[in-house]
Amino acid sequence: MSEQTTTPAGVDESAASSTPMVLAEHVSKSFGSNEVLKDISLEVRRGEVLCLVGPSGSGKSTFLRCINHLEQVSSGRLSVDGTPVGYREVGDKLYEMHPKDAAKQRRDIGMVFQRFNLFPHMTALENVMEAPTQVKRVSKAKAKARALELLARVGLAERADYYPAHLSGGQQQRVAIARALAMDPKLMLFDEPTSALDPELVGEVLDVMKELAKTGMTMIVVTHEMGFAREVADTLVFMDGGVVVETGDPREVLANPQHARTQAFLSKVL
Amino acid sequence: MNDASSGRATTPAPAGGPGAAPVPTKVVRLRHPWRIVVAVLLLAVVAVFIIDAAQREAFDWPNVGKYVFDQRVSQAAGFTLLLTVLSMIIGVVLGVILAVMRQSPNPVLKSIAWVWLWVFRGTPVYVQLVFWGLLSTIYTSIDLGVPFMEPWVSYPTTALLNTFWLAVIGLALNESAYMAEIVRAGLLSVDPGQSEAATALGMSWGKSMRRVVLPQAMRVIIPPTGNEVISMLKTTSLVTAVPFTLELYTRTRDISAAIFTPIPLLIVASIWYLAITSVLMVGQYFLEKRYARGVGARPDTGPGPVTGAMSAVDAEIAETAIAAKHGGDAR
């Protein structure tokens, strides 16, 4: 299935020959008897922006959550930057990691949630400072300077002392992005980051994500925003029923979907 | 809107249209004369009761005044407060452990926590206290060593645990069962997305518990825990079952037995219980304020609609926890 990942031009930076950022090989995932991912094989290169689209229940979010081990794969191999996630590879066996070691791996993977999940008892600034100070043991002063810089980058410098309950949805999601970036991740996962927002607030979040893509961040975005996919993504993956149906350059897939299921889906959302 | 309605001839011209008659604006509120009547009646009853009580011989106010600041009584109040604080601290710590055990994936831990709750919640605290009093009869010595072998060290139980500590243990273990359910309700009230976000940031389970989940659970945990503290203060009057006799109620009973005046000393004890309760309530107020961060009003505006909805939900959860406790079983 790996031949499905076509290579879009002009993505690779210096790391052309290095290992892919995310490599999924025959990944399957079941909840009880319900198989939500079936033999997924995917490759995400450094600096690539990949958009995962598909109807709800197609397994997009589950796949994303498998990448940082919030869910465990049932079979197959899923590695980030050459290292299997949540497992230690010895010989031909994968040993499940202690949660503490798995937690260490997640430091390098930022995640942004549909419902923001900001910590409501902390201000925007404290939210962004929390992980660097608590997990990486960065000094308070350093973390604060960096947090203010990140908040300025997402356009919220003057909202640093506001609690999440006093920010709009779009502002909360931008703080959530800054919070994830504070750990200096090498990979960012976005789980429907604009689906819980009022339509007029979607743009401000997408703008921040576009800026982030320009800096060369590797991003995997589960989204229903086809405009964003067309403009920003290097690769578009269409999933349905737990399988990858179609993969390719977003402009081509959106304009000329090859698979009947993709055509049916796109005719409804575009 | 005005332009539109004036253009439409068929619409009955509402007040406010151009050139319409001035709108009557005086609002006459509905009067409630019966409220005043009821209020006056009640105040009269209260006044009669107070005046009567002040003059009634049986209350023996001079003796109340004499004993309320008696050193034996204030010392007993100190013991009552100490019993309350110590057994609450142990009860809360054990309660948190039990609550976490009940969430554990390990079925043995889960069952042990469940059985603990079943036993300590299912039997009257008075009965438990009598049992603790008989501990030294059941286990005459406390041994350290390998089971069924000659112990390395052996202490007589009575030397290790006096009646005060037996009372503390008895109250604390009983309390832990109730606290476990209160803490569990608090943990369940926190959105699972919170610990997920903490996990995704690389926090360990313990860290996400300490930094993210517990501080939010506290808002739900504190009100029923305040209830528990006050309830504990009054339950200490039962430790005479152990028998520990230096706390407020037993001490005032002893004094009244010596001077043959039970009523004034009951009033003395009540005054002290009320005084301590009042102090504890003030403490609870400040604790609640501390953990309300992020849900209060924004510095520059009034409270948002989200805030109100959230605290309503929390209040509901807290009420459920209290109802589960007081409705389910008599202590």
TrEMBL record, chain A:
What EC class is this? translocase
Question: GO MF annotations for this entry?
Answer: ATP binding; ATP hydrolysis activity; ATPase-coupled polar amino acid-transporter activity
Give the catalysed reaction(s), semicolon-separated.
a polar amino acid(out) + ATP + H2O = a polar amino acid(in) + ADP + phosphate + H(+)
- What EC number(s) does the entry state? 7.4.2.1
Tell me which domain of life the UniProt entry assigns to the organism this sequence originates from.
Bacteria
Annotated keywords: ATP-binding, Nucleotide-binding, Transport
Pfam families this protein is in?
A: ABC_tran
Q: Does the keyword Ribosomal protein apply?
A: no
Would I find Ribosomal protein among this entry's keywords? no
Query: PANTHER family annotated for this entry?
Result: AMINO ACID IMPORT ATP-BINDING PROTEIN, PHOSPHONATES IMPORT ATP-BINDING PROTEIN PHNC
Family classification: Belongs to the ABC transporter superfamily.
Q: What is this protein called?
A: ABC-type polar-amino-acid transporter
Q: Which organism is it from?
A: Agromyces fucosus
UniProtKB/TrEMBL annotation, chain B:
Q: To which species is this protein native?
A: Agromyces fucosus
Cross-referenced InterPro entries, in alphabetical order? Answer: AA_ABC_transptr_permease_3TM (IPR010065), ArtM/GltK/GlnP/TcyL/YhdX-like (IPR043429), MetI-like (IPR000515), MetI-like_sf (IPR035906)
Membrane topology (UniProt): Multi-pass membrane protein
GO molecular function, a single term: transmembrane transporter activity
Enumerate composition-biased segments (Low complexity): 9-20
Protein name as it appears in the record: Amino acid ABC transporter permease
Renumbered to this chain, region (Disordered) spans: 1-20
- Give the main location: membrane
Q: What region holds the ABC transmembrane type-1 domain?
A: 77-284
